[in-house]
Amino acid sequence: MEKESFVVIGAVAAGMSAASRFRRNKPEAEVNVVQNGEYVSYGSCGLPYFVSGLVKELKGLVVYDATFFKEKRNINILRWHEATKIDPDAKVVLARNLKGGSEVKLSYDKLAICTGAFPSKPELPGTELKNIFVIRTAEDGIILRNFVDEEAPNKVAIIGAGPIGLEMAEAFSMRGMEVTIIKRPGSILKMFDDDMTKMVEEELKVKGVNLVKNAIIQGFEADGEGKVKAVILADRRHETNFVLLATGSKPDSRLAKEAGLRVNTDGTIAVNERMQTSNPDIYAAGDCVGQKHLVTGKDVYIPRGTTANKQGRIAGENASGGSDSFDGIVGTLVSKVFDLTVARTGLSSSEAAAEGYDFTTSTISHPDHAFTYPNPEPEDITTKLIMDKKTGKLLGAQMIGKHKTMGVAKRIDVFATALQNRMTIKEINTLDLSYSPPYSPFYDNILIAAEVALKKLRT
Ligand SMILES: Cc1cc2nc3c(=O)[nH]c(=O)nc-3n(C[C@H](O)[C@H](O)[C@H](O)COP(=O)(O)OP(=O)(O)OC[C@H]3O[C@@H](n4cnc5c(N)ncnc54)[C@H](O)[C@@H]3O)c2cc1C
């Protein structure tokens, strides 16, 4: 009897989680993973720190390499292979060898599509010029880092002001460049409330980053060699040595669509809670699929590495005969923007308004730890809560504080847990949280934020 075969397309967060879980449950099966580049199982989240030079070599981002997977897990990774077609009737995946070899035909019993996302580029004249970069894959990171190392540019224009754009601003600034962020109309970090992002704008100013807001970008201007030399705005030209497009990403559902699988209107591959596509033998996970938002109950596309790993594991579990499900997300995010840590979970005010909630908000600023532990001196953390007036339930939370306090990243997780458990502000106010002077004020910021929010709800 032939061995059972599991094929995975994409070997990063979701793909390698799926392959590893399948292998653990089915030690005798054949597991093949197709990846269209050199690197596998790496943390894209660390790419800004690779470009900045904080992470010296790309292998510093690699969790396990292809040799580890082969030798320790008996998972075969076909690197530099592009899956070009899925034939669901024949249960076959075709893959092209990008180094020039022959086409490979992989038969599967179960398949997982973990193709991730690709950068969403604005449709503007000149987007394809030389020295206009994106940052998505390890290979993108290497191209960008080599360019910076070799050309030593003085000026960069970053298009887009989401978390990746801002993390890259810090990376380029660390490399000694003059950094300009060009942002179309709307606020920076749009998943935060405007009063919170004001603090981030102030931080960018202090760190010497030029922020061009409300920009209408008309295209990019080339020099004689076809390299970008300026960003053309409605009212002026902005000269630059190179451009980074940090304008978001789109789910890569192309293969799934061509194979006749159901694809949602937002481009994500349709899956059920078991991560199963419209074909029961084909699973999909990670940035190529969406998620259910546990606050609104609606389908959303909020791609995150943590989600991709969990979904991949669940796809591998179910493909190997198990029974697990991915319930959803609450949209939690944390990011380092120079000396600040910015974090959020749940709904922002504008999202709560769009969902029709009758909500109110309250904001506090409170020290991250007790004044009785002065080394380092306590630093304020600003905490904003968004809550439903009718039920008293938390709808969302946002926190900003100095990076060195480290207190923002973990505290937002308490709010995320509260959201996932549909807790009211009153219940949050009764949480039994830890206290010791180096770590927390006597009443933790979470409890004080809830106490103040409760008063607001009662008025
Ligand atoms: C700069 C940056 C910073 C980030 N920071 C964070 C963070 O701090 N926290 C967080 O939670 N998330 C972060 N993310 C998001 C996170 O990296 C992604 O959510 C995660 O990588 C998704 O994993 P994935 O396996 O679904 O997809 P991907 O990482 O996109 O991997 C899919 C892989 O499949 C390959 N592939 C696609 N099609 C084919 C094909 N036909 N044949 C062969 N191979 C194919 C792709 O080239 C890609 O390498 C960040 C992302 C970036 C780019």
Strand order of the largest sheet: 3-2-1-7-18
Please tell me how large the radius of gyration is: 23 Å
Query: Uncertain regions: pLDDT < 50 for 5+ in a row?
Result: none
Ligand catalogue: flavin-adenine dinucleotide
What overall geometry do the principal axes of the alpha carbons give? Answer: globular
- What helical percentage do the residues reach? 25-40%
What is the number of E strands?
25
Separation of the first and last Cα atoms:
72 Å
Biggest β-sheet: count, sense, barrel?
A: 5 strands, parallel
Strand content: 25-35%
Specify the oligomeric state: single chain
Explained architecture:
The structure is a single chain. By secondary structure, this protein is α/β, with parallel strands linked by helices. It is 27% helix and 26% strand. It contains twelve helices and 25 strands. It has helices spanning 13-25, 47-52, 66-73, 138-151, 163-174, 194-206, 254-258, 305-319, 349-354, 407-420, 425-429, 445-458; strands at 5-9, 30-34, 76-78, 81-87, 92-97, 104-107, 110-113, 117-119, 132-134, 155-159, 178-182, 210-212, 217-222, 228-233, 237-239, 242-245, 249-251, 282-284, 291-292, 299-300, 333-337, 340-346, 359-367, 380-388, 394-402. It has a five-stranded parallel beta sheet. Strands 9-16-10-11-12 form a five-stranded parallel beta sheet. Strand 13 (217-222) and strand 14 (228-233) form a beta hairpin. Helix 1 (13-25) packs parallel to helix 8. The longest helix is centred in the C-terminal third of the chain and has 15 residues, at 305-319. The protein is globular, with a radius of gyration of 23 Å. The N and C termini lie far apart (72 Å). The model has no long low-confidence stretch (mean pLDDT 96). The structure holds flavin-adenine dinucleotide (FAD). Flavin-adenine dinucleotide is lined by residues 9-10, 12-15, 34-37, 44-45, 47-48, 82-83, 114-117, 135-137, 164, 252, 255, 286-287, 303-306, 308.
